[in-house]
Amino acid sequence: MKLAIDGMGGDNAPKAIVEGVLLALEDFPNIEIQLYGKQQELQPFLKEHARLEVIHCEEIVEPEDDPARAVRRKKDSSMTKILEAVTEGNADACLSAGNTGALMAGGLFKVGRIEGVARPALATTLPTIDGKGFLMLDLGANADAKPENLLQYAIMGYIYAKKVRGIDNPRVGLLNIGTEDKKGNDLTKQAFLLLKESNINFIGNVEARDLLDNVADVVVTDGFTGNMVLKSIEGTAGSMMSMLKEAFMASAKTKIGAVLMKNELKKLKGKLDYSEHGGAALFGLKAPVIKAHGSSNARAIYSAIRQASIMVEHNVTDIITQTIAENQEQ
After folding, report:
1. Tens digits of residue pLDDT in 221-268
2. What's the EC number here (predicted)?
3. Beta bridge partners of 6
4. Can you list the domains of the chain with their CATH numbers?
5. Whole-angstrom Cα distance, residue 36 to residue 8?
6. pTM value?
């Protein structure tokens, strides 16, 4: 399979991108990578590899660029080119750590939606206390949603959790302000009824406070709510690690305790580390489009490449397409 990678996107590009690509090529013998970007900036970090092709691009989509305008006007940018590679069939999936809005806009304009999908959703795997993690969507592709959108998100999330994460019968929960069936606003009440009638393993409403306790394998919500929950989790995790570090550095006694607990603290940090979970997939498009975290290091890029390759290997897009079509016929 061929993957198209944006070598210029993200806070740590191009170094972290290239290093992640080289790690992935060593571990995944079934992939070929097309790396797009400015040759002169990529070159210092590159190593020759039989399954690596570097494609020069003159332009870069910057973080501050207007999403839609950037995709239309920067036609020789690394981000635009990876999307075109997928659209034209020269790559099976694409990945970028760059401007999220531009990647989503480009995915819609160039790759296109699966027939029957009203609105694509941004989804990623978030950590849980037991280390298993859960998939959450939508995380910001659409601020507003209709009940039918949440049903489609649930179907796509269920398929991904089953095919990519290897969960036999994923539990799907609807994020709400309470677990009772009739809780919530009009959106969640109507979505609850649609999900209850679907063929997926819907377990009912779940609350935000229970998400890290592995209450569900897939959690569905609108993009506005999902984005705030995502940033709350990321911010809380970061703050907790900072407070723990400050506490352990407070005195000679606590420093000794830190040394004794070094391995346990390392495991805790690993559970909360986004770099192990890959990127956020834009579900509902005709080919896999992966958004890696903007501050991705080499390990995070490696994980996102692994995620993209598994999606291609298990034909996730084709299965989503087929399932959406079958649900429309019912």
Report:
1. 999 999 899 888 777 767 777 777 777 777 777 777 667 676 766 666
2. 2.3.1.274
3. 36
4. 1-117+284-330 (3.40.718.10), 125-275 (3.40.718.10)
5. 8
6. 0.83
Q: Which of 279, 300, 251, 284 is nearest to 15 (CA)?
A: 300
Q: Which residue has the tokens 């941004």?
A: 122
Q: Which CA distances in Å does 274 have to 17, 128, 193, 255? A: 16, 12, 33, 27
